[in-house]
């Protein structure tokens, strides 16, 4: 997921200059979390969507909402799993809606060389 987000960020930054000339503004921020989610059909007959629900999806959505343009935010828990692969900068402890405790958060800068 982090590699994909980095590739998306690079491509969007290339396109942003072109779109800006046409009068369009585009921001790209990502929140990534890892954990268990319930997936399946959500809704009712006639209006059924396939999706994921749970604390992990809420955390990823809240991190995404906090991300500034070009940021890829990950919680400290996820960083512990990928820290040998990526360079990050600390963002700090974020208080996120629906999450009971502040979340130590990091911005992914790039893959380590």
Please give the structural blueprint.
Elements: H1 2-21, E1 30-31, E2 38-44, E3 47-53, H2 55-66, E4 72-75, H3 76-82, E5 86-94, E6 103-111
Parallel strand pairs: 1-4
Antiparallel strand pairs: 2-3, 4-6, 5-6
What percent of the residues sit in helical stretches (DSSP H or I)? 25-40%
- Total helical segments: 3
Per CATH, the class reads: Alpha Beta
Spatial strand arrangement across the major sheet: 1-4-6-5
Reading the helices and strands in chain order gives HEEEHEHEE
Shape, principal axes of CA atoms? globular
Structure report:
By secondary structure, this protein is an alpha+beta fold. It has a single domain (2-111), classed as Alpha-Beta Plaits. The chain is built from three helices and six strands, in the order H-E-E-E-H-E-H-E-E. The chain has helices at residues 2-21, 55-66, 76-82, and strands at 30-31, 38-44, 47-53, 72-75, 86-94, 103-111. The strands form two sheets. It has a four-stranded mixed β-sheet with strand order 1-4-6-5. A two-stranded antiparallel ribbon has the order 2-3.
